[in-house]
Design a protein that fits this description.
single chain, three-stranded antiparallel β-sheet, Multidrug-efflux Transporter Regulator, Chain: A, Domain 2, 8% strand, mainly alpha, 4 helices
Length: 179
């Protein structure tokens, strides 16, 4: 930008003989060209420009003054696309897509955890019911066969099987005697 000075609001106010608030007001109205860079505002003035040359003609205190034409007539204008800003914009869009994908993944995993939690609760309920049934069966077996309540479980099981086989033989013999 040859032939132009980028000045802070305070420096432009000093060069133009205005207050910083007056410079800000002119930037806001679009009567004083400015550029925003890195969240700072710079007033763009032709090199060596002094006060009267940049006072707007429609300002009540400066009727008839000459305003130098500037290509940046908007309140705050960027001169050209900044490659760093473009790269950061692309990077931000990529990050937004990643965040959306991660949120979708989080939601999917949360649904899966909920499903597994329900299955676990169901399994725990079934286990409790089975344990209750086993306890009742054990109590019934202990009442029916007092010898099953004490001693070696393997020995008791062998005795029970022998007893059952004996009962089956007796039943079969009884059926064989009948014509």
């Amino acid at each position: 930008m040859t032939g132009q000075d980028w000045l802070t609001v305070d420096a432009a106010a000093a060069r133009l003989g205005l207050s910083p608030n007056a410079v800000r007001g002119r930037i806001k109205r679009g009567t004083l060209p400015a550029i925003r860079r890195n969240s700072r505002v710079f007033v763009v003035l032709p090199r060596g420009a002094a006060g009267a040359a940049h006072r707007p003609t429609n300002h009540p205190t400066n009727r008839g003054a000459n305003l130098a034409a500037s290509p940046a007539a908007s309140p705050v204008a960027d001169s050209s696309p900044d490659p760093t800003l473009e790269r950061l914009g692309r990077l931000a869009e990529g990050r937004k897509r990643q965040v959306a994908a991660l949120r979708d993944e989080r939601d999917r995993l949360a649904r899966q955890v909920d499903r597994q939690q329900r299955l676990l609760e169901r399994e725990q309920g079934l286990r409790a019911r089975l344990q209750d049934q086993l306890d009742r069966l054990s109590q019934g077996l202990a009442a029916a066969l007092p010898e099953a309540a004490s001693g070696d479980p393997a020995e008791t099981a062998d005795r029970l099987w022998r007893r059952l086989e004996h009962q089956v033989r007796r039943l079969n013999e009884g059926d064989a005697d009948k014509p």
